[in-house]
Amino acid sequence: MGAMFRSEEMALCQLFIQPEAAYLSVSELGETGTVQFRDLNADVNSFQRKFVNEVRRCDEMERKLRYIEAEVKKDNVPTQDHLLELPRAPNPREIIDLEAHLDKTENDILELSQNAVSLKSNFVELTELRHVLEKTQVFFTEDSSFRQEEVNDSITRALINEETAVQAAGARGRLEFVAGVINRERVPAFERMLWRISRGNVFLRQAELDKPLEDPNTGNEIYKTVFVAFFQGEQLKSRIKKVCNGFHASLYPCPNSSKERQDMVEGVRTRLEDLNLVLNQTQDHRQRVLHNVAKELPNWSIMVRKMKAIYHTLNLFNMDVSKKCLIGECWVPVGDLTIVQNCLTEGSRLCGSSIPSFLNVIHSDEDPPTFNRTNKFTRGFQTLIDAYGVASYREANPALYTIITFPFLFAVMFGDAGHGFILTLFAIYMVVCEKSLTAKRIDNEIWNIFFGGRYIILLMGFFSIYTGMIYNDIFSKSTNIFGSSWQNPYNWEQLHAAETYELAPAETFQKSPYPLGLDPAWQMAENKIIFLNSYKMKLSIILGVVHMIFGVCCSNINFFHHKKYASIILEFLPQLLFLSLLFFYMVFLIVIKWVLYSATNDGANGAEGDLLTGSRCAPSVLITFINMMLRQSSSDLDPRCSPTMFKGQDTVELIFILGALLCIPVMLLGKPMLILFNRRRKSKSYPVVSNGVPSQDIELQPGGVPSPSGGGDHGGGHHSMENEAFSEIMIHQGIHTIEYVLSTVSHTASYLRLWALSLAHAQLSEVLWEMVLQMGLKAEPGNYVTAVILFFAFGAWSLFTVAILIMMEGLSAFLHTLRLHWVEFMSKFYTGDGYIFQPFCFKTIFDAEDAEE
Questions:
Q1: Binning pLDDT at 50, 70 and 90, where does residue 160 land?
Q2: What is the CATH number of domain 115-279?
């Protein structure tokens, strides 16, 4: 947990690497993921950098891999999706072999694919020719009636078979035909076009193929139709062929005699059988090649992607003047400097270089990136904070405290042990099975959000069980484990005489309260909501004020770290006093009221002391606080009751109000006056004269070296006002002061959502129990209908419980808890103006690319 207290200390380093060792050194750094490189060639075009040719080679290899992968997937060859251990990047000597191997594999697969397409095209053509010959054989053998008038303007009606057609053609001009195959969806348009160009002088016969044919190029199924068009004349024949070409119809030769067609069909069938045998052998050979390739494909892909990432990183380096050394700059966590040096040494050793590479830590005025070292448990909480804003460098990290406060405040609103138990079971399932669930790589976004926050959900479930026990609320019902502290003074006859009875605390309540949580007797009380309203509302105010005070105190962590001791006096103390004198005093009144006043002291025995400490004389804390601010007394109490809770209350409240008012000018003017005083002191100590006129725009360092007044702020990302104009400082400080003063009121009221959501959740749970499940429980027992009613009632209650009370109410409580941390808590000390540390890491690069895909 110590690593989450604040971000890691970072160092800006220069890497001096020999050119022959650069590739392997960067490869070692990518495996460890410890450095974030800076671009030293920002002004150089991407196509003019040193390693652009190597990047292009990697792009070409990726193109080949994509083609190979597409061919593997097209044949449904299984591949290994997740590698147990990622291969390392190949060394420069292995790159040439890998490139040649990929080129040979691509050419082999490409040749196999082209041969397969050619063979399939021949197979499809022969299949179409077979269908044409078989279908036309049917056309010619059937007795058909042709209107010769339609073929030749004035030919009389005659029955035509194959022989009569030849005779008629010899008598009045030869009757010809064209046979072919066309896509089924184009047949209606094709038929209309033939009718138009021939004015009805073409006789078309067609027959659909029973089975679809496979497209050789795409593999899609195509439904086709065989057609035969009878016509007369060469001019009409030319038109028909043009129409066939326009509709992409395939024309095939068809002999006139039946014997020739039959012989041709037999020859085509023989060729189809031979071609089918060749196709099967070709497919078997292709499958063997693709199966061998599929085993190495994931390794090749990882290796090429690593190579490309390395060369992209090397393009960020700069070449020294002598061109004998590559120079790179990177941010490195101070604790990982030894790891980086070991990587450089290992890179030099692997390439056999005699000149070692080394790193040099340099000073920079630039704000370093923020790096919070996390594990799988703390990563989810850190993500919640980074979603609001990345912490400034070395700023106090709220994620450490959020591990406890976030699930606790959620549980205060959720507050049901039964619902919390279901939430805990769901989280335990994700935690126990996290390895198998991670390996599945589920793409559902909602599931990934739940799985990423599984440890957050686990703690929220644990805390919800705890608060449910405090509220004594399990699925809207209470448990009576220790026995109620309320006694029943009525006998059996009196209980049957009326529906409700009043239990006077002075007579029916024992001195010892219920050991854990609320007494179960409140479950049957008619004033249960009134009591819980008061209890949860006061509890939310106490938790809210304590939470905000803790946030103000956390600002000291930043002040001490950045040695801003003046801010402790001028910012922290006034803010803490203002919040404590007003709102922590209200918390004090709540506790005092709980301690001093008791419902058992109602003054019934006539004792004046009992009356003053009884519930009748208990003042309203809210009215007391309002009267304190308005400086007036309450007139609502019994005249015999004391208007104050303790002696000297009016004097204490007056002192607190004056103290809080005095804190405002200190917050408003303290820091600007200090900055103005420091400027005047520096100007007197180190005057600078420009053209005979003293200048306030340049400050001198103690050594006499001028430094520009716009130097970077190193105060952990806090807004730097030291170098602004005094008017801008006053405006900024005024806005900050007004915001803080007003926010103390609004933020305190905002914590009342703890009370509102807790009450709403409890009431929804109770309504769901009484309106749904109790319908089945109240049914008359002893028959099967009651069992069916109870079965469906329990199913509906379970569904609504999970969907509404756990998912919807849980999401609502989660968002409200998130708001309480982002706005009410973190605004007291957190700036969030930093930028995240993004190291060069192969695993991170692959995860990002996979997420984009």
A1: very low
A2: 3.30.70.2750
